Amino acid sequence: MNLKALRAEAQELQNEIVKWRRDLHQIPELGLDLPETSAYVERTLKELGIPVKTGLAKSGVVGLIAGCEPGPTFALRADMDALPIQEETGLAFASRHPGRMHACGHDTHTAMLLGAAKLLQAHCAELKGNVKLIFQPAEEGPGGAEPMIRDGVLADPPVEAILGMHIGTIFKEVPAGVIGVGYGPLMASLDRFYIKVIGKGGHGAMPETTVDPVAITGTLIGALQQLVSREQKPTHPLVLTIGRIQGGSAYNVIPSFVELEGTVRATREDERQSIARRMEAVVAGITQGLRASYEFKYDFGYPPLVTDEGVTRHVEETARELFGPEGVMTLSEPTMGGEDMAFFLERVPGTFIFLGGANPAKGIVRAHHSSTFDVDEAVFWRGSAALAASALTWLDKNHKQRHASRR
C-alpha cells in the first residue's frame, strides 16, 4: 500500500469530514439512546456502499468492509455519544439540543471513522481480509462497549485486532495533528464508591451522649489516603478521590450519619481489586473501633486500558511512515482518566491512540467536558488517515506472515 497516496486521498476528504462533524455536532444525544446520530451514521455508510448492522447496544452501528481476499478482521472503533452540558461555544454549528453538547470530541471521532471508512471502501480491492467499523454509544455512561460485545460485535467475523482514537487535550503534551501512542497501561479504571458512616446523633454540646460520625469521618479520610501513600507502589499510579461528603443539617447538632462518595482510578487490575478490599477493611476497622457502623459499596466500572505491544508498535510505525517522525509521540505516562475502549482491549489485542486537537494559536485550548470545548478541525484528515492506514497495513502484514508460514 502506498501510504503517501493514501495520505493525499485523506487530505482531499478533509472538507467532507468537517461537514460530517458539524452535522453531528448539532445533534448531540446521550447514553445508549442515539436515534438521530445512529441514523446519520447508518445512512452515510450505506451511501458509501458499506453493509450495516444496527441495534447493537440499542444504538450501536457496525459496518463491514470485505476485502478481495479472505483473511482476518481488523476493527476500528469510534464513540458517538455526547454530554449533558449546555453549549457555550458560539459556533455557527452549535448544538440544537438544549442541555446537550459534544464536549468531548465524540462527534469528531465518528466523523473521522466515516472518513476512514470512505478511504478503506475505495481500497477494498487491496484488503487482505476485513475491516469492521464499530460506532459505539454510551462511552460517557453507562457504557456501550460491554453491551456491544454481548451483542456480538467482536464476532461474525471474529475480530483479531482493534484500534480506537481520541482527540483533544487529554495528553496536553501532544500538539495539534500529532499522534500520541502508549505501551501497556495507558488509561485508568473508572470505579465509584459509597460509604455511610452510621453513628448516634445528638446535641452538639453533649458529645458524650453521641457517636459522632463527623469526627469518625475525619479519621477515616486520612486513613483512606494512606492506602495510596503507604500501601501502593509509588511508581504505579493510583488515585482515591472523595468528591462528596454530606451529613448534618444544623450547626449545633451532631448528625446520625455521614455519607461519602468518590472514585478510584488504577492502571493495574490487581491493584484495583486490592484497594477495593482494603478500603472496606479500613472502613470497618475505624467505624467499629469508634463505636459506629457502616455501609460500603464499591462499583467496578470501566477497567484499566492496557494496550497490546504488537498492535501499538504496528500503529506507531504506520503513523511515522504517514506523517514523518515529527508527527508521532510516544507517551511515557498514563492518564488517570477512564475509557470503555478498555473492554474491547480486554478481549482483543489492540491499542488506543491520541490525536492532538488543541491549538493555542487559534485560541482552541478548552479542556474536555467544558461548555466551550472545541478542537482544531484542520487535523481531522490525519485521524482518518491513521485509522485507515493502520487497518490496511495490518491486514497486509498479517497476510504476508501467514503466507510465509505455509512455505
Supply the key terms.
407 residues, alpha/beta, Alpha-Beta Plaits, 24% strand
Q: Any overview of this molecule?
A:
With 407 residues, this protein is an alpha/beta fold. The chain has 2 domains: 3-188 and 304-405, Zn peptidases (Aminopeptidase), CATH 3.40.630; 191-300, Alpha-Beta Plaits (2-Layer Sandwich), CATH 3.30.70. 35% of the residues lie in helices and 24% in strands. The protein is built from 10 helices and 16 strands. The chain has helices spanning 3-12, 14-25, 35-47, 106-122, 145-150, 213-229, 269-289, 309-323, 341-347, 380-405, and strands at residues 52-56, 60-66, 73-79, 130-136, 159-168, 179-181, 184-187, 190-198, 202-203, 238-246, 253-254, 257-266, 293-302, 305-307, 328-330, 350-356. It has an 8-stranded mixed sheet, sandwiched between helices. Strands 10-12-8-13 form a 4-stranded antiparallel sheet, with helices on one face. β1 (52-56) and β2 (60-66) form a beta hairpin. α2 packs antiparallel against α4 and α6 runs antiparallel to α7. The model has no long low-confidence stretch (mean pLDDT 97).
